[in-house]
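User: quick one, fold this
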Amino acid sequence: MKAIDRKLLKRLPSTFVPALTEQLNKWDLLFLAEQRALQDQVDYLAGLPARAFDELFRPVKDLEARMRLPARGGGGDRISISDTSALVRSPHYPQWRSEVEKIFARIDDAIAASRSRETRKSAIVCILPAGLPYPPGSPWPGLAAAAQTLQLHTPFSAGADQFLLSLARHTDSTKEAAERTWVFEAGEKLNRSLAQATDGVTVLSFETLGPLRRQFLKRLNLVRKDLRSADQAFEELRRMDLGPLLGERLRRDARLAGFIRDLFLSGNGALLFGNSFVEWGATEAMRRARPQLLICSFGMRSKLKPFSSLAVFEDQGRANPVEEQDDAPGSLIDAQILANYVFLATLRLPSYAERTLGVFAIEGNSEVQATGLPAAAWPSGPLSSSELAGGIVRWLEEEL
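Assistant:
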């Protein structure tokens, strides 16, 4: 990171400073895509004429003056839960958030206009488990209009490992590992079959990360009902050494360890529910690391148990000894909605819009839905898993 002019920080709205300072302080833990984006933003703001700079941020500064934020809300290296609470309680918060979004949209649009168009294509593969009560027709009715239904010779699960390996091996080898393939799964099957099978693959498994999740839950369950206690707990978890709980493969990359920490501290159910972990982790990986290939494997969740699942941070397996029972209907709703969300959220990112293929499959089912590829890309009739992979690889390797 180039040295940032501290005068620039002083010119920013006070609510911008903690987040920017935190990003700068953990520069070495940012992925290359994040570093490039942050550097571009800082360079753009530093190059703005004073009048244009003031006009860009005036709406937010005017709102801050009316919001009566705590004095420390604009200071320090990180905005605390207490500071965030004061911000969101303000009646001006919705307008503040809208103005912030407008500012970043203007900055990003200006940067994009000055750069050449991204030529790399990408793919997202979402896999749903067998055994769910799938209705007749497409399990993703929202995608049916834009997707093709492809027939396989055998159930998808029969050739899944080789199919996924083939895709991973054909990602852009000139990129670093974090920009090639990411895998998120509710179980741990892909962690066993893909983690060491080829270069450039990052696998995060909800089950494999169980020991770390339980340590986070244990600490969070000690939080008292006040914001100061929550701030203290989160600060302790930010400082906690994750190495002994991550295993050799994951702890080798400090950025990956930081990603996992941020994922578990950001909420959204990633600590408690495997399918939430897959969805939120995948969405964050696409936003932060910008990989070319994303694989999401959803799973079967357990029914919520009385007197344990009501707690915000509770491991119901520990709190209630009653045997776990599968929740097939709930898992179907999870997987349908969350898989769709991962794909649509990715398409909102400029790096992926209009250049991302979606593949949606069900273990045990011989039909696959694909969006983004013309019908001519596939041989007529049922496909083998290698033919399916070949069509996707050819598409990935074509330049826009």
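User: anything notable?
Assistant: The radius of gyration is 23 Å.
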